[in-house]
Amino acid sequence: MTMRLLGLVVALCLGLSTLAQAQEAKPIPVKVVVLTTFEIGEVTGDRPGEFQPWVEGLPLKETIPVPGLRHAARWSPETGVLGVMTDMRARARESVAALILSKQFDFSKTYWIVAGIAGVDPKAASIGSAAWARYVVDADPIYEVDDREIPADWPYGLYSLETDKPNVKGSAEGSSGMVWALNWRLVDWAYGLTVKTPIPDSPALAGLRAPYASDGNAAKPPFVLKGEALGATRFWHGARRTQWAEDWVRLWTDGAGTFTMTDCEDQGIMDVLDLYAKAGKVDFSRVLVLRTASNYSRAPTGAPEFPRAFHGEGAQAAFDSAYRVGSVVVRELTSHWDRYETNTPSAASVGGR
Description:
Layout: H1 3-23, E1 28-29, E2 32-36, H2 52-57, E3 62-64, E4 73-76, E5 81-85, H3 90-101, E6 105-106, E7 111-120, E8 130-132, E9 135-138, E10 143-144, E11 158-159, E12 179-181, H4 184-194, H5 203-209, E13 224-226, E14 228-231, H6 239-252, E15 259-263, H7 266-278, E16 287-296, H8 312-335, H9 337-340
Parallel strand pairs: 1-6, 2-5, 2-7, 7-16, 8-13, 9-14, 14-15
Antiparallel strand pairs: 3-4, 4-5, 7-15, 8-16, 9-12, 10-11
Helix pairs in contact: 3-7
């Protein structure tokens, strides 16, 4: 064998060895995943949406492309935090599944925090408030009849599959898990850790609250609470729909949950995380959902329903409070990883940090 041929063989062997090593590279262990759903513009340097406060605030400086994600993930090797923008509505389900299946990361000990804006029931809280969910309820698998054509004794034209009238729990077998109970000990811990987190108020927010003075919690400055998230890919608004949401959450949680926040993604994200938890890919007991109020789910009592769906001041307040409140939990988990890597925290551990 000539020296030239020998050199080619050695080079080929080295190349194959390097390729094999790359293919066998161990997945990156992730301590915390922060899931947001959208951004207004760029992820840094301009007007912030859901994702930008996390990228700039933690910070998440490295970019990692993930097959199946429309936006590159952001990563901090120093803290072990991965930030992901899932896109909205049904795309969130696809993105979370792609992330888990990518084989780039080890999620076996990961804490998951869904952090996004939502509509809020005026009975529960005010714009800018932040709610840790104990339950996530799916509102997508549903029968719908035009409200103008419903029987006179029906409150609205929405009701469960496999039933024939509202407020009867049906079945969505093959469609959805319908309701996911989160780890209450972890939720209580996150709430206790963040309940005193200052959330800025402003004259603009006070002005949005003023017409809701008769609703109590809706008229309070922003605060942290515990309350359920209702997920539906359609955007809805109004007094009758808010009544339906209150009833729907109460129905599917067997009276244990209180409708607080309405969003478009949590049901899909929970369904995917639950399915892959059953396959041993993630730990569902380490999932948290934090929704922050950008708008009320209905108009003030006696006021016209439209146009009242969105307020620019409310959205900015919700973007800000999601990061302010959620980052407290992220920093606690990552800075005391020796404590939380193998032991999921509970409310009893808040005072003993």
